[in-house]
What does this fold into?
Amino acid sequence: MDSGQFPSDKPETRIQKRNREAILEAALDVFSARGFRGATVDQIAREAGLSKPNLLYYFPSKEAIHVALLTGLLDSWLAPLRALDPGGEPIDEILRYVRRKLEMSRQMPRESRLFANDILQGGPHLADLLTGVLKPLVDEKAAVIRDWVAAERIAPVHPYHLIFSIWAQTQHYADFDMQVRALLPAGENDPFPEAEQHLVSLFTRTLKPAAAV
Amino acid sequence: MDSGQFPSDKPETRIQKRNREAILEAALDVFSARGFRGATVDQIAREAGLSKPNLLYYFPSKEAIHVALLTGLLDSWLAPLRALDPGGEPIDEILRYVRRKLEMSRQMPRESRLFANDILQGGPHLADLLTGVLKPLVDEKAAVIRDWVAAERIAPVHPYHLIFSIWAQTQHYADFDMQVRALLPAGENDPFPEAEQHLVSLFTRTLKPAAAV
DNA sequence: AATAGGTTTGACCAATTGGTCAGGATCACG
DNA sequence: CGTGATCCTGACCAATTGGTCAAACCTATT
It folds into this structure.
């Protein structure tokens, strides 16, 4: 149950770089669309333009590809939360976070579905990463929110559940895209502009403190 | 690509009833935990206490079990939304809906994950049901919300996106349960009471109209 | 051009999986 | 009790799948 992709001491060849990237790109496509078990190594290889044995020359196993993909993507996936600035204006900061997260659902729906697929099934490949790198980050930012509440700069709100609210609603537009488009009236084919308006308004109302003393 | 479970003219025997129920119960367990492709007929059969050929005596195929499960469950899954009463007090009605939906996430997480798994992957078995039965219902209730807004009984809000907000946040506690529990501080092992408080507060603030004239 | 190391492939394998089938066991009912 | 319908099973099958391997093929360096 190794993570694959250990950094060998030898430098990476041009070919290695190109193929590893092609594999991860193809794997993102296939894993996010069909889940870990639903994806086949053959599909990934074909989409990466390689033969199956050749793909397995670069990664020791299907699982290793999946883990390498999750680990490699986690950082950029968490960047918006990292950017939440304790020194900024609370409501601006949180709204910026909401907007960036929604933008990621729009631009990187495959990544969102990739994580969702794994967590939905108990996070067999993600659980460790979650408690290892996500939890400390969330604890840190939850503390920031708690302080903003204590200073009465935003309305009282449970920090962790506020974060869950942001995740749930923004990622919903990536993970459940099919449902969203199926249900929205036919006219508008791009849900995101109205989603942004809606979420900004919802969180503004949720967070604006009661009229100052 | 038949739906299975056509209503035969012959009446159902005791044994048929018992076994069909056992199969669907086992299938709910397995499909919700591993997704359609990740589930095996053998697992379902074992968990239902039957042999694989015996299970296939009751349902013609794995797909038929899945479809029968989804169709059979959809109604009870949508009951809370159906119960939204156009004649009731708007904010009470919506909050009651939020509470019932959250309660379902708590009591029926498997059903939530079952639907989530399918929609996540483009809804191969759910798309038709969605546009067929869910869409009319959502259109109807969105109209109710639109009227409440027009009558200034709740703050201005996009009806469809409000519904998405409710779904996303309540189902989050079922679908992403593993993540929620991994991230929440260790002390509290039951996220739901605080989630309810949080969501009630969030939607109250979102919906309460500006001070009356 | 030789050669050593990196890259690619076709052929293959064992395990798993969805599904079939012929026949045996059991049940309901006259 | 007998008999037809229902219920159940072991053995089997074809297809798919993750992974291996020896040999062939490139490519960079001397």
